[in-house]
Amino acid sequence: MPGATSSQSPPPRIRIERPGPAVDAGAYPVKRTAGDTVDVFADVFRDGHDALRAVARYRPEGEGPWRESPLRAVDAHEQGVRWEGELALDDTLGIWEWHVLAWVDRFATWRHEIERKHAAGQDDLSGELSEGVLILQDAAALAESGARRRIEETVAALGRPGARAEVALDPDLAAILAAHPDRAEQATGPTRRIQVDPVLARFGSWYELFPRSWGGLRGTAEQVPRLAELGFDVLYLPPIHPIGLKNRKGRNNTLVAGPDDPGSPYAIGDASGGHTAVHPELGTIDDVDHLVSVLHEHGMELALDFAIQCSADHPWLTEHPEWFNRRPDGTLKYAENPPKKYQDIYNVDFACDDWQGLWQALLDVVRFWIGHGVKVFRVDNPHTKPIPFWTWLLDEVRRTDPDVVFLAEAFTRRRVMQALAQSGYQQSYTYFTWKNASWELREYFTELAHSGEEEYFRPNAFVNTPDILSEYLQHGGPNAFAPRAVLAATLSPSWGVYSGFENFEHTPVKPRSEEYLDSEKYEAHDRALDGPLLPLIGTLNRARRDNPALQHLGDLRFLDTRNEALVAYVKRREDNVVITVVNVDPHNAQEGLVEIPHDLGLPGSYTVTDLLSVERFDWHQGGNYVRLVPGERAAHVLRVDTR
Questions:
Q1: Which of 276, 433, 444 is nearest to 370 (CA)?
Q2: Model pTM score
Q3: Looking at the predicted structure, is the pLDDT value of residue 118 above 90?
Q4: What is the per-residue pLDDT across 348-384, written as a single tens digit (0 to 9) for each?
Q5: What are the angstrom distances between the C-alpha of 393 and each of 63, 198, 421, 474?
């Protein structure tokens, strides 16, 4: 062979293929949260008939010694080559790495040969036993003292005249050799990565409010105990920065603002500061610190809006004019998302000559707020910015602050949303607000849970946003709100509510618009936590915290109801099983039979407790009668009682 020397070993004969879970053949890490157990697998095989063993080796990327977890051959009885195992993650956040290590188990191969020949009645196995002596001598050199003595005793017994095969077949010896393998002919598979995030990246309840409608940042802090009591984990605020005066929008997005109109908080920046400043009418940076402190006292986190855009008065326009896109006539190009126009907002130019300076400035903004205790960022329209920028920024933040969570507010083409998730975003908004029919919900959440997307795309199902008042809520009236809350809270591990939802706000600014009339984006409201839907929201959040099945997505399974107006599904996490049935018709009572299939593994008959009403019902395999009436009982959230 050209270039070969006599000292080289031949290429390894063991093949390790298709290790997983993986995203795009390992191009991107899969995502898990701290403390998770990761099910891993690979195809491991070799020509010939030698026995193989394999482990998964894993660790935080580049840190410390490898940890090992054994892999099991799961389909060898069917001549298959699939091996499976589990990785037990600890609380270390960031990127982990793992690979499969496989080797020839020389002792098991030899022992199997002896076993077969002995069973076939072959008496003279002296040659085979002498081979075993060499294998055991190699193993003894690697074993600890106690095991070494036992192996050496076997070597001595096999060396005596008339040694019998039973010595080689001793099960205790096999157990010792399994614990002290010599790992001959090792092969290592390709490395795969896992992005390990805080649990909040997978599971949490969000509440969004505009602080100017609640008495500023201090007034907002006063609401925290009640929000915590309602079971919320994250308080999300739209931009809290100074608002520009030039081209300021008036109420209901009018082009001319009145003298008292506060403007849109998304028109960021004035002479007093930009993305690291606080609007003086909301408070000061000390008030932000106070709000973060109060939230942490109640087990909550603050989410700030990271909106990469500027008003015409933002300091960057004078300090860094090269960062902005100008037309040939020298005028600035304002932001547009047809048919929407944002005359008060200008986007930065990611293709400018000083793109590196721009990128660094944006990272500095994020780090500034992290320095003030902000651990969650909702990113406005990330799909209109370069994905390589997000890959870089998210990686930079993860290196120093892996407990920070980024939510992508991207309502765009599905593949672009997936690419943002692959770039490192911990969560994403979804199409949930537009999925209202039973078949739409089944199709969409089956994709989220079972298409492979669940390995990297974590949904956050907001029932409404300041930009999205769905037609379902507009035309369904107050009875449309409860089913949407139940669906979001039980289908998605993360869900969100924008204030006003609990008060059944459903009036659009005009027909066929998703914008609210008198939108808070352009004016302040007099808000209070007194909406009639809050008791249901609190009950849902308690149910979510008490039932691990509702904190995960992957075990979702839809059930037949024999009525398209009823959607039913089951979630399971070990012994915790929750069955949810929702009437998606806000106008009419609906009834049906919820089919519990035999292969779900539930007993023939059992009791369930409705987590919304605390009633108990007798259920069984097969069809279970359900009747749901809008305004009276929108849904069942049924925990299967354990006995």
A1: 276
A2: 0.94
A3: no
A4: 999 999 999 999 999 999 999 999 999 999 999 999 9
A5: 22, 18, 13, 38
Strand partners, 639: 578, 609
Distance CA 454, CA 448 (A): 6
Distance CA 360, CA 4 (A): 50
Residue by residue, DSSP assigns 131-162 as HHHHHHHHHHHHS-HHHHHHHHHHHHHHHSTT
Rounded Cα gap, residues 179 and 152, in angstroms: 16
Q: State both tokens at 503.
A: 């008060």
376 forms beta bridges with: 303, 405
- CA count, 13 A, side-chain hemisphere, 520: 24
Q: pLDDT tens-digit profile of 5-37?
A: 556 788 889 999 999 999 999 999 999 999 999
C-beta separation of 471 from 508 below 8 A? no
User: Is it the case that residue 286 has pLDDT exceeding 70?
Assistant: yes
Residue 532 to residue 514: CA distance in whole angstroms:
23
Note the helical H segments in 424-498: 438-450, 471-476, 481-491
Residue type, 152: E
CB 611 within 8 A of CB 637: yes
User: Which of 50, 313, 344, 380 is labelled catalytic?
Assistant: 380
* Closest by CA position to 489, among listed 599, 574, 376, 611: 611
Indicate which residue of 105, 287, 409, 523 is catalytic: 409
If you search the block for the tokens 């089919």, which residue do you land on?
595
Query: Which H, E and C letters describe 507-555, residue by residue?
Result: CECCCCCCCECCCCCCCCCCCCCCCCCHHHHHHHHHHHHHCHHHHCCCC
**Is 47 tagged catalytic?**
no
The two beta strands, 376-380 and 301-306, are parallel
Q: What is the pLDDT of residues 309-337, one digit of tens each?
A: 999 999 999 999 999 988 888 888 888 87
Provide the β-strand partners of residue 273: 270
| Class of residue 484 by CB neighbours under 10 A (exposed 0-12, middle 13-18, buried 19+) | buried
CA distance 452 to 449: 8
In a 3-state reduction of DSSP, which class is residue 632? coil
Chain centroid to Cα 387, Å, comes to: 19
380 an active-site residue?
yes
Closest CA to 403 of 258, 486, 321, 296: 296
Does 3 have pLDDT greater than 60? no
Rounded CA-CA distance 382/308 in Å is 9
